């Protein structure tokens, strides 16, 4: 990168207005605040607002991210280890490099042949969410209530579904639960999955040549002192290509953030970075996901357009369940990348923000709150059985907390007809365009 470009980027950063959240201070106090979508799921005991008088829950529609997992791909471990193994073979490790090499070995050994798999913590997260759902809405799980569970074909999602359903069956063995994981169920749940969805040339081009790739690479070159870190680890040039440098330090950052998900909290690579650098790593990830999967202007509505598949699935299944009474609960198990597009489509929590300011996005479009491991969205439906033609009400929980919908009324309870009408109009208004690509 040229010196001129570096100065331009820094100049752009310095004029950023103040933001409501102080992520920099949070990370300085607690480096785990940089974990983003690697954040482990936690529930703080938030109380739910009682339903209006006479109204009772009649149906739940749910979408959940898989729980805590090992790194997605085997090479996330092996490629990083290979760099240090090669340096060790060439006697090119500094004392600090030998120390980091030992940590990489330990974490790679733990992850060997487990890449992408649900961890024990991931199982317990979904069992906990199921337990609270059962306790909060007991009438929906009484007697031989019918529940339909669907997952993508990815094994961590299938196992998350299994853990969730197992927890429910432990409480009531009479429950009739169907479980399915096929390409057909995958299609609306992982709407970016090319094996069962048509990915347009525009979206493929955006994934390959999206401007965000260039922006995050350029910012990392400016904000992370990689050359100094390399000299602290290696006695001679071992990694020289700029892309390889970024990959090495990104992987070390990811391994560190994922460690608590797999029982390896005692191993961290956060000490390779200053608190300021950790802050920028978190900003990069929030910004990268906002632009690649979220409502970023440069994505030209592509991500929100694809998220319609999941919202349509929720609407059609809800209407069917409400009309027929055939089942009490629909459970879905998918991925973080889908929540990144789906929540902005719902316009909840401010995640539909349209912004181009890198640092503002990095602070406010917070992956740790949007889609931690086992993140979930729950639509809870209510009716008043004493009134023949009572309105059907719905409230939405994001990570088991009530959210405000962009619907008239103070919430958290809204008329389903109003909610459905709003979202159908919103989906109709979202027309995909041409994304911004690197020239």
Describe this structure as you would to a colleague.
The chain is an alpha/beta fold. Strands 1, 2, 3, 4, 5, 6, 7 and 8 form an eight-stranded mixed sheet that branches. It is globular.
Number of helical elements: 17
- The ordered H/E elements are HHEHHHEHEHHHHHHHEHHHEEEEH
Beta-strand portion reads 5-15%
The number of E-state strands comes to: 8
Largest β-sheet summary: 8 strands, mixed
Please tell me how large the radius of gyration is: 23 Å
Shape: globular
* SS content category: alpha/beta
Distance from N terminus to C terminus (CA atoms, Å) equals 16 Å
Percent range for helical residues? 40-55%
Low-pLDDT windows of residues = 1-19
Structure, briefly:
The chain has helices spanning 3-14, 23-29, 75-89, 95-111, 120-136, 155-171, 183-189, 201-209, 211-223, 226-233, 242-258, 275-293, 302-324, 336-346, 358-364, 367-370, 416-429, and strands spanning 56-65, 146-151, 176-180, 329-334, 376-383, 393-398, 401-402, 414-415. It is an alpha/beta fold and 439 residues long.
Name the descriptors:
439 residues; alpha/beta; disordered N terminus
Outline the fold blueprint.
Layout: H1 3-14, H2 23-29, E1 56-65, H3 75-89, H4 95-111, H5 120-136, E2 146-151, H6 155-171, E3 176-180, H7 183-189, H8 201-209, H9 211-223, H10 226-233, H11 242-258, H12 275-293, H13 302-324, E4 329-334, H14 336-346, H15 358-364, H16 367-370, E5 376-383, E6 393-398, E7 401-402, E8 414-415, H17 416-429
């Amino acid at each position: 990168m040229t010196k001129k470009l570096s100065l331009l980027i820094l100049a752009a950063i310095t004029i950023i207005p103040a933001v409501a959240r102080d992520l920099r201070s949070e990370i300085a106090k607690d480096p785990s605040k940089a974990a983003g979508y690697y954040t482990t799921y936690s529930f703080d005991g938030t109380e739910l607002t009682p339903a209006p008088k006479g109204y009772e829950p009649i149906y739940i529609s749910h979408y959940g991210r898989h729980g805590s997992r090992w790194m997605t791909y085997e090479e996330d471990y092996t490629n990083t280890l290979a760099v240090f193994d090669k340096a060790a073979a060439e006697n090119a490790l500094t004392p600090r490099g030998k120390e980091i090499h030992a940590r990489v070995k330990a974490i790679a050994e733990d992850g060997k042949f487990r890449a992408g798999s649900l961890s024990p913590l991931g199982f317990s997260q979904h069992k906990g969410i199921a337990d609270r759902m059962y306790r909060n809405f007991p009438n929906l799980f009484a007697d031989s209530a019918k529940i339909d569970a669907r997952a993508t074909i990815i094994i961590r999602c299938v196992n998350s579904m299994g853990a969730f359903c197992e927890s429910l069956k432990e409480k009531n063995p009479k429950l009739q639960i169907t479980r399915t994981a096929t390409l057909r169920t995958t299609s609306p749940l992982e709407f970016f999955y090319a094996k069962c969805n048509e990915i347009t040339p525009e979206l493929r081009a955006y994934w390959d040549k999206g401007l965000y790739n260039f922006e995050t690479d350029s910012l990392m070159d400016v904000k992370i002192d990689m050359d100094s870190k390399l000299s602290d680890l290696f006695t001679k040039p071992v990694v020289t290509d700029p892309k390889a440098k970024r990959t090495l330090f990104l992987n070390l950052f990811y391994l560190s953030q994922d460690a608590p998900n797999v029982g390896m909290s005692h191993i961290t690579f956060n000490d390779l970075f200053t608190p300021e650098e950790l802050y920028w790593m978190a900003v990069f990830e929030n910004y990268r996901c906002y632009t690649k999967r979220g409502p970023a202007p440069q994505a030209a509505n592509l991500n929100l357009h694809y998220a319609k598949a999941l919202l349509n699935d929720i609407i059609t299944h809800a209407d069917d369940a409400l009309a027929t009474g055939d089942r009490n609960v629909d459970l879905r198990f998918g991925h973080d990348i889908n929540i990144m597009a789906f929540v902005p489509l719902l316009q909840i929590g401010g995640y539909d923000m349209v912004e181009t300011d890198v640092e503002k996005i990095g602070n406010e479009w917070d992956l740790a709150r949007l889609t931690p491991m086992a993140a979930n969205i729950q639509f809870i439906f209510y009716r008043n059985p004493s009134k023949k033609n009572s309105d059907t009400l719905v409230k939405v929980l994001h990570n088991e907390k009530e959210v405000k919908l962009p619907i008239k009324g103070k919430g958290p309870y809204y008329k389903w007809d109003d909610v459905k009408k709003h979202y159908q109009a919103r989906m109709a208004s979202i027309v995909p365009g041409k994304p911004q690509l690197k020239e």
